[in-house]
Amino acid sequence: MTQRPLPGAGLLLTVTGRCPLHCAHCSTSATMASGEPDAARLRSFVGTFTPAAHPSVLMMTGGEPLLRPELVTELAATARAAGTRTALLTGAFFAGRADRPGHPGQVAAVPERIWRAVTAVDHFSVSVDAYHERETGRAPVFALVRRVLDAGVAASFHLVGSGADDPYLADVTADIRRTFGSRVPMLVNSLRRVGRAASWAAADTASPDPERALPCSMAAWPVVAADGTVVACCNQAVVDRRPAPAHLTLGHIGTDDWESISARAVRSPVLRMIRTVGPAHLRHRYGAADEAAPRPGYCDGCRALAERPEVLAAATAAGAGPVGALLDRYAARGQAEAGAVALVRRHGCAPYADLVALHGAAR
Ligand code: SF4
């Protein structure tokens, strides 16, 4: 998390868009009919990591990445050979069933091919929330995490609740602390109105103050989407909708290697400015005045920059060259030095931000 604001320090990779679970809040609306990147192209793209040019962190996600366990194992080994540390985010569909809950001390029986993938990565993260619990239950997932820790792999929980006051979050975070002490960090987010939650979750109507610089740290790590397109951020609409806005598109795993993708992410003048002052400030500063129009949300306004050529042209001029590079580095360094807790306070569920900094030792 401390590297999250650093441009090109990490890569988020969709191993598959498919998932066997049916969580009501799924941000990607994943089903077993969803698309997935070609395995050979994924191997080949990760194979372009070299000791001289590689992301520090590769986060494999989905859908459910452990539907392709052999591929996860292989990608983890390839990435590690180049010097990249690997992490995996799963819904743990294999851990158990909510209607057959087991008990917290029970060691999960994990299929061997999946276990090889779980222990091939440096960090194992599992999603736990009220919606996942209806599918997998809590006790089987806790048993799985206990086994992962015993195998020497660091682990963390990704939690989602309706907001800071959600009693579910208070309950599950206390349960995790009781069960694991400070061994397992937690990344706590608030539910967003995307994917399957688009029709029922509360809308985020917050509109940022455009006078203020509000940098977007999420534009720092490239994201490989299920169709192999590489986009500049993890906003789900950018990852899922096609065509992706040109200013947020970095390339495709079928035609580009890591070095060219990371160079585009680092050198794009528009991305530099999004990371430095944020999209709302860019619109306010460089956009043609349109007092009558409602002010868009943070990410909505960023995606809609595709229709504001005057803003993109000004951002390109401001973010190009050594001055743009310096501004970008300065903003990234400031956010990295502020640390993971400050980052989660801004982008996650603020009252639970401290939990991301729990010690997290594997044993
Ligand atoms: S849409 Fe723009 S503001 Fe939102 S996460 Fe992506 S780059 Fe950042």
UniProtKB/TrEMBL annotation:
<dbReference type="GO" id="GO:0003824">
    <property type="term" value="F:catalytic activity"/>
</dbReference>
<keyword id="KW-0949">S-adenosyl-L-methionine</keyword>
<dbReference type="InterPro" id="IPR058240">
    <property type="entry name" value="rSAM_sf"/>
</dbReference>
<dbReference type="InterPro" id="IPR007197">
    <property type="entry name" value="rSAM"/>
</dbReference>
<dbReference type="InterPro" id="IPR013785">
    <property type="entry name" value="Aldolase_TIM"/>
</dbReference>
<dbReference type="Pfam" id="PF04055">
    <property type="entry name" value="Radical_SAM"/>
</dbReference>
<dbReference type="GO" id="GO:0051536">
    <property type="term" value="F:iron-sulfur cluster binding"/>
</dbReference>
<protein>
    <recommendedName>
        <fullName>Radical SAM core domain-containing protein</fullName>
    </recommendedName>
</protein>
<dbReference type="GO" id="GO:0046872">
    <property type="term" value="F:metal ion binding"/>
</dbReference>
<feature type="domain" description="Radical SAM core">
    <location>
        <begin position="14"/>
        <end position="163"/>
    </location>
</feature>
<dbReference type="InterPro" id="IPR050377">
    <property type="entry name" value="Radical_SAM_PqqE_MftC-like"/>
</dbReference>
<keyword id="KW-0479">Metal-binding</keyword>
<keyword id="KW-0411">Iron-sulfur</keyword>
<keyword id="KW-0408">Iron</keyword>
